[in-house]
């Protein structure tokens, strides 16, 4: 699990920069057979680093690539109103699962200050999956969403949006974060 945290810290949900490369190389050098490295998306580490991780006998997991989860949880959030439509969409797509919720909680509130999100992250184990209606349910600012995704990665769990394709990958996630942040700022100005 230490490797997952190191990669998540080195990658910061974006392509590793030149300054990240030595950290990534050091992490790969320290890997042992059986270690697991969890990243947001395989492109974050690149093909050469992915091959080096697998040559060490470690396993590379992606938060956004499909897999057979050990357990599946849902997460819903709404700043005002009911999250019943999100709950219904998750239940329809996945079946009956435990759904954590933060109703009446602003998306700009830090994830650690949201009781439902805090409880969800505490419950997560490696191999679990978190389903959301849309990625922007995780937060309304880039920083809030990134913090939650990094916590999910650190736990070795995966994240799935019911309305956005996993193929959209890292660019889509960043784009959705930026749009969510813009929408929130625009609503505040009105």
Automatic annotation (TrEMBL):
<dbReference type="InterPro" id="IPR036162">
    <property type="entry name" value="Resolvase-like_N_sf"/>
</dbReference>
<dbReference type="InterPro" id="IPR050639">
    <property type="entry name" value="SSR_resolvase"/>
</dbReference>
<protein>
    <submittedName>
        <fullName>Recombinase family protein</fullName>
    </submittedName>
</protein>
<dbReference type="InterPro" id="IPR006119">
    <property type="entry name" value="Resolv_N"/>
</dbReference>
<dbReference type="Pfam" id="PF00239">
    <property type="entry name" value="Resolvase"/>
</dbReference>
<keyword id="KW-0238">DNA-binding</keyword>
<feature type="domain" description="Resolvase/invertase-type recombinase catalytic">
    <location>
        <begin position="71"/>
        <end position="190"/>
    </location>
</feature>
<keyword id="KW-0233">DNA recombination</keyword>
């Amino acid at each position: 699990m230490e490797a997952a945290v190191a990669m998540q810290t080195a990658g910061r949900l974006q392509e590793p920069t030149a300054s990240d490369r030595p950290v990534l190389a050091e992490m790969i050098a320290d890997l042992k057979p059986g270690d697991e490295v969890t990243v947001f998306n395989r492109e974050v580490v690149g093909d050469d680093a992915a091959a080096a991780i697998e040559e060490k006998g470690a396993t590379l997991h992606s938060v956004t690539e499909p897999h057979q989860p050990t357990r599946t949880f849902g997460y819903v959030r709404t700043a005002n109103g009911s999250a019943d439509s999100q709950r219904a969409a998750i239940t329809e797509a996945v079946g009956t699962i435990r759904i954590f919720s933060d109703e009446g909680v602003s998306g700009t509130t830090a994830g650690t200050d949201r009781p439902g999100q805090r409880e969800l992250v505490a419950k997560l184990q490696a191999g679990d999956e978190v389903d959301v209606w849309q990625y922007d349910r995780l937060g309304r600012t880039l920083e809030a969403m990134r913090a939650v995704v990094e916590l999910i990665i650190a736990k070795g769990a995966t994240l799935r949006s019911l309305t956005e394709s996993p193929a959209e990958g890292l660019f889509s996630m960043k784009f959705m974060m930026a749009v969510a942040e813009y929408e929130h700022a625009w609503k505040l100005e009105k």
